[in-house]
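hey m, so remember when u said the tokens were messed up on ur end? i reran from scratch. heres the input so u can diff it against urs
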Amino acid sequence: MIDRAFLMDKLKEAEFDLPQPEQLAERFDRYAELLVDWNQKINLTAITAPDDIVIKHFVDSLLLLKAYDVPQGAKMIDVGTGAGFPSVPVAMVRGDIQLTLMDSLNKRINFLTELSAELGVSAACVHARAEEFGNKAEFREQYDVACARAVAHLRELSEYCLPFVKVGGGFVALKSVGLEQELEEAKAAIGILGGKVEDICRFTLPDGAERAIAVIRKIRPTPKKFPRPYGKIKKNPLNKA
């Protein structure tokens, strides 16, 4: 499916220090095969060309490990994970991570369940809406890291993700260009939800595309009234502290 030599070249170009590279390339190849196969049945991605999958999905996802020092044995939740990005590639490299994959569409959860089994990634695949499960005791503030690679505005994304993070943990949001304006607009919401912007990391993918990753530290518990129902989040975004 993918050119494994091309994959390894791009991973080296991005200066990733990866364990068992040949075995990893085989697993990434299988990931790409499953992604393209399932994409014919359900909408997982618009990116299906092999080289684009390597750069825009695999390399892009692994940038999380450059932006954030994920603790050994960390509990990580990927909110609205879709086809497993960014966390499945991260867990393929870091087998110590205890991963939860959360998505609101059950068909995607079916894909993720098969994907995890095929790739040997230990992951709990949960069919849920983040704004509902963020209030459940077994999920709320239980994770060292929450991550998302989503098109939602950082203001709303913070309300979906920060309730899952333990105090002292981190929320890592993978975004494209234009992050400064989003951060300014999300600043009040992040503070209300118990977070503080710790870092903004910028990267250039091998194809020249720009990426920005926001690292938000959880410095105090999220107030119990958050997250709110989806309708309220969309209608009344958190704009004021």
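this time it looks ok to me. The first strand starts at residue 75 and ends at 79. if urs says something different then somethings off w ur setup not the seq
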